[in-house]
Amino acid sequence: MPRLSSRGAATRARIVQAATELFFASGVAETSLDAVLAASGTSKSQLYHYFGDKDGLVLAVIAHQTELVVGEHERFLRDVDSLAGLYRWRDAVVAEQRRRQCVGGCPLGALAAELAFAPQPRAALADSFRRWESHLVGVFTRMRESDALAPEASPAELATMVLTALQGGLLLTSTSRSVRPLELALSMALEQVAGRLRAR
Amino acid sequence: MPRLSSRGAATRARIVQAATELFFASGVAETSLDAVLAASGTSKSQLYHYFGDKDGLVLAVIAHQTELVVGEHERFLRDVDSLAGLYRWRDAVVAEQRRRQCVGGCPLGALAAELAFAPQPRAALADSFRRWESHLVGVFTRMRESDALAPEASPAELATMVLTALQGGLLLTSTSRSVRPLELALSMALEQVAGRLRAR
DNA sequence: CACCAACTGGACCGTCAAGTCCAGTTTGCT
DNA sequence: AGCAAACTGGACTTGACGGTCCAGTTGGTG
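ok -> structure tokens follow
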């Protein structure tokens, strides 16, 4: 890998940006490299210069999409340390999905479904989900340390439950074009958390 | 649509069968019609004779996959009318996923993710999920009628919660190659049900 | 300012995809 | 038996795809 000049970095970023949007809107297999080039205003040689081949681009897009999605949740969850904060997070997630009229689910979830059998991308996405989960684990750890959560509650288990609810909710919401499944799924998960609050 | 002779029906079925397997293993976009023909031992003209084009085949595969997946759950859930029965169902789902070593998630979920932006397939899949949900609704309705469930519990809401948990659990299980997310998601959903049992 | 690596444009290639076409065979019906 | 509809095989067309190549430009560093 050669080191990037600032111009090179900008070109690379434009390609990744365009590919990220197209992959989300049409899927990886349905998106041609020519479409990526047209959308980013670059040429074949540039794409191959930076990514080697389509697989390389796919991995770069996974990394970028992870940054976007997980990054946003991290910013929101960073200083959540209460059930009330989690409910605000749920409301924000639902509102965002409503805003886009339930079109399209979770970008990472879509990639995970499409690339379930491709070893490298699958491993990369497993990592993304682990990172995502870790921010939820952070919330529950803080809640336990502040004695909001019962000491026997498992932050890791709660985090997994919330993330599965989120993914399942987004899938059904996108398919049915109604935010209801997402609302119900997240409410269910948070009720689970509520049931593990320290008895008082 | 011409009416089918028994030979025609068999040919049609062989094509759908092969396409169903290939679409699941590699995705719709990644699967060529030639591959379907090779796997089913048929020819171009037969495929176009029965399905018109690839989109037609996709819809037929959705219908067939729905029959397989929803049909299997229907058979299991048909005479479930208790929380214990639901736990047995959960155990069966988890065992099945373990049996296939967590490779690949829900066939319908994968199609829904890949075809989220394709109007016709998306609508067909929304229907499939509704059918799936309806069998869960049946379980909860029976439980409420037999007074196992509190009268204010909503069968429809519980069904949606269970289905989202199942879908999210399968996605993360397939991505992480561990049955843990699926176990946790379904346990969470059933605990939700348990919390709505009639107080005694 | 000179040099070399980083970068770029776009023509080009081989392959394989979806879809068309038609001549020929089988099937069910009368 | 005979006829029309259902069915089949596979050659063929057209175009788009991923990927290669190379000649040329830009830009940072000594």
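The mean pLDDT of chain A is 95.
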